[in-house]
Structure formats: structure tokens, C-alpha cells
């Protein structure tokens, strides 16, 4: 390992020979929740074994990282050598840190140039990724800037007048800045794509290839994703130099997530959701709908039921989306209703329940949705509300993912998705204010208020909204009030029309 260290690397003996610096670190409370083998099946390396700079190790330990996950263990030492990487790993297994840590190791703080470009598909993921860079690199003297569409271009121009070492952004805005010669990428030796399958889809592929023109010819490329379609392979052949391939995806589904379905008619979905709210011990939940209109309508209905709820979708203003995302991450609201906008990479450890109010049509979408719970190998629960028209999609997704989505039982074992000690669930690092608002909006942020009624549904929010973590005290459950109505009971003739795989699983009288 010592032979592959660059000039910017602190020797292992220097980093670990004197442990006095460790005693001065502000280490957060240990996360004692059980984890699955997805993140525990490691070779036994520590972060110090990677010969990282002491300043970087300090940031890693103060972020609560103890040992590298399998994807981090595989990719960090290879990335530090300068080799291209094509890495495939499950959602929630530490992919972001797997490329952020070698990026921070290779950056030279005294060189006032953009040295790393991290491309992500959504604005929320850009905010989150830039915060990981800032958190892990807080002792390294490295400057990180996030730039996305929907924000003021003038603000980006002003910030690029100062030193920026790492640029995190969405494709359209980065291409705009590069083509205007506002962002100088001529010395950007490291090019990273997170969620590479989405980045190389029809929406972004042309823009990505245009951005590459502005990078030096011999740059290093790191591609990370949970799925690699044919477009990624084509990009690899064309643009990567003998990449080191990592595949930790022998099984597609997440082992820590228990998956159930409830077979209900469309008009009974809200009633079913209300029942779930009453009976489940929800810390935080994300509910997915298939359209923006249904997102807004459902959020209002949930609020009318007396539950705290925000919503987010692509048609909202960027400032409003940022505020919703930030406050949900901080635990100021229990439930978030959204479209597939937030299926990519969003990491909120406190989310222990995901509900597909509308069942997705593809296995890829399903995988990314349920991956919002059970982060980093912890336990989570995914519940799918399906109607008659969804039955074949359910069967198809089970076949493609090699999993079984069981009928929801009368009682769900809390040990499947509830942490014994919820105080140990890590609270996300707060996203810095300048990432949320433009400079002229800083004064408003000092006295935050609800942006407008179209952004968030906040009527009748319980007092617990101000707590950083919810203790999940469900409302009193009235068996009479929440009894399953006759409309949800399907007759035997309907049952025989289901796919054979599920004829016995759909209970004619479903109970929750």
C-alpha cells in the first residue's frame, strides 16, 4: 500500500503512531442499531490503513464513521492510486463517502483551482453530497461549492471568484458555467458521477459528454451507481481508461428492509394509510406517489387527518424544495410525500418506513424508493398499497429483483424496523445556510417561516415537530374506527383472476 501513496499522503506511521490527536476529537454518540451483512461483511481494514491525511481522518471520525463499509474498503485505496473506477453497490451502503474520501485525499488545498467535479442528477442530492464533502473535509482547508439549476447564476459567478476546490452540481448548470468560462475545469483531474445510470440516461448523457470536453484529457473518472444499464457500459468503453470494476450487487434487494403489500381499492387507500399511521411506530416516513398532482392532494389529505406532513416535487421552486428537504432531514416533520424526485441517493438515517401509495411500474424505481429506509445496513419497512391494476407489476418486480413481497400481516413485529434506542439514530449534519438561500435571502433565514401554503401542508402539526427525533407516539387506535370496510374485501372470483404467484397471498379479508 505504501508504494501507491502520492506526495499529498501522510504516512501510516505518522497518522497512527501518536494517538493523542484522537482523544481531542468530538466523536458523536455511537449508533448501536443492528446492521445487515451488506455493510458488515468487510475484510477488517480501518480508515487508518488507507494512509489518509490526519486532517481527513479527523473529519471521518468526527462524522461518526468507525470502519469502512465494503464499497469504501474496495474503492478508496484504488481511487487514491489514480485509477478509473466503475463501482456498483446497493443503496445506503456508503457510496458517497467511497468517492468523497479519496477526493479529499487527492485535493491540494494550496492550489486555487477546481480539482474535482462531482456530478449528480438532482438538486437535493447535490446539497447532500456537498455537505458530506464539507463535513469529512472540515479540517482539510478544502473549499466546496454546490451549483444547480433553479438558482441565481450571478451568485455562482461571485462564489467562483473565490477559491473552489470541489464543485458539486447538476449537469445543466455545470455545462452553463463551463461554456461561459466562468468555471475553469482545465485542471480538474478528478471527474465523479454519482447515480451514474441516471446521469447517462437520455436526459443527461449529451450534456455529460459536452462537459468532458472542458476537462483535461488524462483526468480520472469514478462512476458509482446501484444499477448499470447498457448506456453505462457504452460510456465506459468510450471515456474510461481500463477501469477497475467493483460489483457488490450479487443480490439486488436490500436485506435490512422488510417488504409488504396491502391489496386495496383506490378509494380506500387513504383509509388504509390512516390505519398504518395509527398502528406503525414511525420515526420518519417517506410516501411516494406517481404524479405531482397526487403528491399535493395526498399531502393535504394527510394534513387534514391531523398528521405533520411536507411535500416535494419537481414543479416546486428551488428555494421551497431546499427548505422542505433541509427541515425533513433535521426531523422537524414526520412525513414527507414526494414524487420520484427523492428516490436518488437521499440519505436520512431516521427514515424507518417507506410507503408506496402508488405502486411503481419498474423494478429500478421500486429499488430506489424502498432504499430510502434501511440506510447503511440498518432495518427498515416498505409497504406497498396496490390495487387490481398493479398486480402484474408486483409479480414482475418480484421476478426481476428475485424477492418476495409478502401480504401484510395483522401485526408487524417492531423489531423489523424500530431501533431499540432511538436516541442513537444519527441526526444529519445541517446543510449550511448559503446552500439553501441566496445571499439576499440570508436575513429572512434568521427568522424562518412557512414559505407558502402551496409548498408545505402544516396545519394541525403536533408539538413534536420541534423535536430533532420523534419518539413515535401513535394516536390512540380505535378498532371500530379503523376496521377494514367491506369495499376492501374481494370475493373469491376476483381472487382467481390474480396471477397464480399471488392467488394464495391476497387475503379476501385483509387485516392490518
TrEMBL record:
The residue ranges of the DEAD-box RNA helicase Q domain are 45-73
Q: Which GO terms describe its molecular function?
A: ATP binding; ATP hydrolysis activity; chromatin binding; mRNA binding; RNA helicase activity
InterPro entries referenced in this protein's UniProt entry, alphabetically: DEAD/DEAH_box_helicase_dom (IPR011545), Helicase_ATP-bd (IPR014001), Helicase_C-like (IPR001650), P-loop_NTPase (IPR027417), RNA-helicase_DEAD-box_CS (IPR000629), RNA_helicase_DEAD_Q_motif (IPR014014)
Indicate the family of this protein.
Answer: Belongs to the DEAD box helicase family. DDX6/DHH1 subfamily.
Q: What is this protein called?
A: ATP-dependent RNA helicase DHH1
Q: What is its EC number?
A: 3.6.4.13
Q: Which reaction does it catalyse?
A: ATP + H2O = ADP + phosphate + H(+)
Keywords from the named record: ATP-binding, Cytoplasm, Helicase, Hydrolase, mRNA processing, mRNA transport, Nucleotide-binding, RNA-binding, Translation regulation, Transport
Q: What are the subcellular locations of this protein?
A: Cytoplasm, P-body
Q: Where is this region: Disordered?
A: 1-33, 492-512
Family annotation (PANTHER family): DEAD-BOX ATP-DEPENDENT RNA HELICASE 50
Locate the motif Q motif: 45-73
Residue ranges occupied by any Helicase ATP-binding domain in the UniProt entry: 76-246
Pinpoint the Helicase C-terminal domain residues: 256-416
Q: Which segments show compositional bias classed as Basic and acidic residues?
A: 19-33
GO biological process terms on file: cellular response to glucose starvation; cellular response to nitrogen starvation; deadenylation-dependent decapping of nuclear-transcribed mRNA; invasive filamentous growth; mRNA processing; mRNA transport; negative regulation of translational elongation; P-body assembly
UniProt feature, compositional bias: Polar residues: 1-17
**Coiled-coil portions:** none
* Listed GO CC annotations: cytoplasmic side of membrane; cytoplasmic stress granule; P-body
